[in-house]
């Protein structure tokens, strides 16, 4: 059994608070410490590149494992510079932006140019699965690059947007996963019964079996981060606390 030692929360654990600009990097660190977790992941839904030198120093002094997340290939060099300041061992990359959806060959060419920087910093780059590229296409990108410093950030819900279930995603991407985003969802028929809705749900009540998913992780997986899709701000904190409890239970079973 693979031993996973790094469990944490991030800016997508509280997406409504982040959207309302009520969530800061330092507040995420405080919440992680209060919960007894050792890792935070600061992503593109908070003003990551506006962190002051004082805030960076405070984050480093907190003693947490800090991961970063960025959106768009063009932002990776800037994010790697910030990762160097924070000694961040992992950068999660959501490839697409609203005006750029690169094809696999373009992604490979761009990342090949960044490999020397990753090697110099000892930082790993994790491509997140999402609703456009298939798990098979993402796996092909990773195998083609052939670097131990490039892998997958596996989200348990995102690939439903590409018509793929979690089992398919795990089959292709679990061995390549550097970071796991645990998020629970349900699929419910709409009121007129002509279609289905995919929605976030309270952790442990939906389709994603946390324990089984963790068992599928391979030797490359470094961290497990709680994320969620709460339907409204009023349930966000309750869901986060329940999800953190489930993370800690999973951590205790595996250590």
List descriptors.
255 residues; TIM Barrel; single chain; globular; two-stranded antiparallel sheet; 9 helices; 8-stranded parallel beta barrel; alpha/beta
Strand order of the largest sheet: 1-2-3-4-5-6-7-10
Which residues sit in consecutive blocks of at least 5 with pLDDT less than 50?
Answer: none
Q: What characterizes the major β-sheet? A: 8 strands, parallel, barrel
Oligomeric nature of the chains: single chain
Number of β-strand runs: 10
The CATH topology comes to TIM Barrel
Strand proportion, as a percent range, falls in 15-25%
Mean pLDDT: 95
**CATH H-level homologous superfamily name:** Divalent-metal-dependent TIM barrel enzymes
Overview of this protein structure:
There is one protein chain. This protein is an alpha/beta fold. It has one domain (6-254): Alpha-Beta Barrel (TIM Barrel), CATH 3.20.20. It is 39% helix and 20% strand. The protein is built from nine helices and ten strands. An eight-stranded parallel barrel has the order 1-2-3-4-5-6-7-10, surrounded by six helices. A two-stranded antiparallel ribbon has the order 8-9. α5 crosses α6 (135-145) and α6 (135-145) packs parallel to α7.
């Amino acid at each position: 059994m693979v031993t996973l030692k790094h469990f944490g929360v991030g800016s997508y654990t509280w997406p409504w608070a982040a959207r309302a600009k009520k969530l800061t990097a330092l507040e995420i660190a405080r919440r992680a410490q209060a919960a007894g977790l050792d890792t935070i992941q600061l992503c593109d839904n908070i003003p990551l590149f506006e962190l002051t030198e004082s805030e960076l120093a405070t984050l480093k002094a907190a003693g947490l494992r800090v991961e970063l997340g960025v959106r768009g290939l063009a932002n990776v060099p800037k994010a790697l510079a910030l990762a160097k300041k924070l000694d961040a061992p992992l950068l999660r990359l959501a490839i697409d932006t609203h005006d750029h959806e690169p094809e696999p060959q373009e992604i490979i060419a761009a990342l090949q140019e960044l490999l020397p920087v990753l090697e110099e910093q000892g930082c790993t780059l994790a491509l997140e699965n999402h609703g456009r590229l298939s798990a098979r296409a993402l796996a092909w990108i990773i195998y083609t690059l052939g670097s131990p410093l490039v892998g997958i950030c596996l989200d348990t819900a995102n690939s439903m947007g590409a018509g793929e279930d979690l089992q398919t995603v795990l089959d292709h991407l679990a061995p390549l996963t550097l970071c796991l985003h645990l998020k629970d969802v349900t699929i419910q028929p709409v009121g007129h019964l002509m279609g289905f809705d995919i929605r976030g749900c309270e952790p442990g009540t939906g389709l994603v079996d946390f324990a089984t998913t963790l068992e599928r992780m391979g030797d490359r997986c470094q961290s497990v981060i709680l994320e969620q899709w709460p339907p409204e701000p009023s349930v966000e904190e309750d869901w986060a606390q329940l999800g953190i409890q489930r993370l800690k239970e999973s951590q205790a079973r595996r250590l």
